[in-house]
Amino acid sequence: MSTTDTGTGTGVDDAAEALSTAPREDGDTAGGSPNLPRLGVLGWLRWFWRQLTSMRVALILLFLLSLAAIPGSLVPQEGVDPVKVADFLKAHTTLGPIYTKLGLFHVYSSVWFSAIYILLFVSLAGCIIPRSWQFVGQLRSQPPRAPRKLDRMPAYSTWRTQAEPEAVLASARDTLRARRYRVAPGEESVAAEKGYLREAGNLLFHIALFGMLIAFAVGTLYKSDGNKLVVTGGGFTNNQTQYDDLKHGAFFEPDNMAPFGFTLNAFHATYERSGPQKGTPRSYAADVTYFGADGKDHQRTIHVNEPLEVAGNKVYLTSHGYSTVVTVKDGQGNVAYHGPVPFLPLDGNVTSQGVIKVPDAVGKDGKRDQLGFAGLFTPTMAIDPVNGPHSTFPALDRPALFLSAYHGDLGMDSGLAQNVYQLDTSNKNLQQFKDAKGTPIKALMVPGDTWTLPNGAGSITLNRIDQWANFEIVYQPGNSLALTSAVCMLIGLAGSLFIQRRRVWVRARRTEDGHTLVELAGLGRSESRKVAEELAVLVTAVHAEAPTAAEEPQEAQPDSVPSDSLPHEDHSDKEQA
Amino acid sequence: MNIAAGVNEHMAQISNYLVYSAMAVYTLAFLAHITEWIFGSRSRVGRTARAVAAPAATASAPAVRVKQRGGGTAVLDRPKVVTRDASEDRGATDGPGAAGGSEKGDLYGRIAISLTTLAFLLHVGGVLARALSVGRAPWGNMYEFSVALGMVAVGVYLALLALGKNVRWVGLFLITSVLLDLGLAVTVLYADSDQLVPALHSYWLWIHVSCAIICGAVLHLGALATLLYLFRDGYEVRQAQGRLGKLDSMMERLPAAASLDKFAYRINAAIFPLWTFTIIAGSIWAESAWGRYWGWDPTETWSFITWVAYACYLHARATAGWKGRKAAYLCLIAFGCYLFNFYCVNIFIVGKHSYAGL
Known about the structure:
The complex is a heterodimer.
Chain A: H1 12-16, H2 27-31, H3 41-52, H4 55-74, H5 82-91, H6 95-102, H7 111-140, E1 155-161, H8 165-178, E2 182-184, E3 189-194, H9 196-222, E4 224-231, E5 235-237, E6 245-248, E7 261-271, E8 281-291, E9 297-303, E10 308-310, E11 313-329, E12 335-342, E13 344-345, E14 352-358, E15 370-378, E16 381-384, E17 388-391, E18 400-408, E19 430-432, E20 442-445, E21 450-452, E22 459-475, H10 479-498, E23 502-510, E24 516-523, H11 530-545
Antiparallel strand pairs in A: 1-24, 2-3, 3-23, 4-6, 4-22, 5-7, 7-8, 8-9, 10-11, 11-12, 11-22, 13-14, 14-15, 15-18, 16-17, 18-19, 18-20, 21-22, 23-24
Helix pairs in contact in A: 4-7, 7-9, 8-11, 9-10
Chain B: H1 9-42, H2 44-52, E1 82-83, H3 103-134, H4 142-162, H5 171-187, H6 204-241, H7 248-251, H8 257-290, H9 298-317, H10 325-348
């Protein structure tokens, strides 16, 4: 669209030079050249570098970055929800492998996504570093001298006065200095500039982007993030073996884990009791006793939005559920197991599933006969033909435990890792307890109940219901750098968008008839009418000191009426980068 | 975390009545605007505006009022500031507005603005009553978010009018879109007044979500201006070629394409830092609630995409070869990302931002 980007020697471009350190676009002029010289390797590299650091390519990369981020929000991500990824792979047997090859399950660490943002940052560096030097140079030098034809400037004013030129210029200098302009020394004219903070803000914003990138990288490389389910009364100490699962970055060192731990004393939850959102959780609170690097015990309550901060780690409360406290006696009448068994919630009303494994049970005959129970726990029990046993409210209003029992070999000695929340019922050596007719027997228990298994195989007593809470323990360095960068980005952005950079020139020279011709001109971004408004204020101030000569006819101004036929200059539209 | 307060059903009911009343009055304002446009197209001024739209003289030169200090004796010539507009416009002037110079049309336009103000007050009342009924920030679900967003959009429009800015042209389009927004809110997105899940119990709800609402409202204004810019720009091209269509009697009453473009840019650029802050505030909240400041949750991802798209627009606006229509399309895409984030991500994609029904 614009073909007048480069100067035509009218003076405006010279004056506008370095009003912005934005890179010059050379696409328009270089593109049409018919006989390009042959490029060597170095030439190609230079060409590639020039292209990469041009605004046009930066724009395209920016747009590609937003496009590339889209699939990550539509396809399940391993880092966000690995279960969903597994489900997706099961459901889509043709698409799944293709997606895996394309890295669509971890978009934000994929090669192509990384390539885009790395190129973008290289492009940014190639733009910002020279601009920073240029800006330092501008700060060290003075505002450029007044161009010869001030009337070509976007805002211009002139009058004749009887005041001495020196007096006019001195008054202009004082006025400009009072308005916090930077004023360059000069004889016949005054050059002043204001709004350096715009470019400073622009640079600050873009440099802060690098800070953000570094913070992100540090956070990803050194991060550790694990979960621990803790039953009321139970505890945790920060050690790799204590975690239920632990994800960590490439530079994570298990030996350097911070020493801390905590005990869960009690857990409190409240739920909406009525209305359409009945059953929705309203508050969760976990009372803990914790110790940090100092080794002393402290009391705290952890809420959902208020993690415990200890020894550089953060402990978040992420979920909760119920655990049944049971006593299992074996065929010999000995207590084979006593303790809490956590059940995992299946739905919003905390219908929960769990298993009780008793590997140490001994049968009536004195031989090893392991016991296993698969159960469904409902805090508020209800049974209907469609849903079977289920919970209708998440609080412990009518707790009940539905159990079916197994005996034989739990398969725990096979050496393979077992899920503690599942019973391997496909195991042939594990038989379900059945009645005389051969139908599996089941029990419905409320706290205090004891279920005696057939054939003197033992019994199980439901002592009481406890709660458990799941904690996420996160160590992520670089957070403060990220926050600092974010604040710098904001400050820089505000500066670069809200501050105007503008120049004002004042010239006063004696004319042949003994008067003084005063000229004021302003230059800024074309977006704003503020330059003219500001110049008007300056004119008012200077004019008060040097009023218009009384007998002067207005028409006598030399060559200063701007006309539409002049080629307009596009001097200020490349402020941003 | 406090023990959740109950819900004042009575206040909730009042809030619903107020929102419905606001919608009714907005509809009247909409009709008044339509009448304004109809009278405008009938007016002779409107019709001849086409013929008058010759290349304009130099842009307005603000006269400098020189104060005579110390009781100056003579009233002298005041030096004027001559401005030279360097922007690349076609010399097209701003249209006369919807009423097109017709007095009746103008009257209906004023009636429309009065009705809009009344509806806005009802709207504010509705949001306040909702807040009182639950004792928390009135933007905890999609319904409340939409209602608050509409309120802020109209509020910004009325504030700009009150400041004497030339924004009357956007009236009809804004009211139409606000009606659509409210209609969608009360039918599809409606959720009863209720308390929030524990994850939303935070003062960041006030900061993060209110900023998102303000950004949405202002970006919406910017997108409307950009859309009208595209239409008006097409009109100016057709006008230059001398082949005007039927709907062009509407286009000619809009401000010049350059003015629309400038308005859209200013409003988008002004709100961009706030959108940045919204994302930062959300990150700080996520850090304290979920254990990480950034986790590529779908809503986070789309807020990032929106941010990058607007960054694209702001850069394109300043790059030769991209400014003008191309930048305008980028602006519309960017606002489309915002809308996608609010509607599609919340409804169709499950993420951590989905709460409380819808």
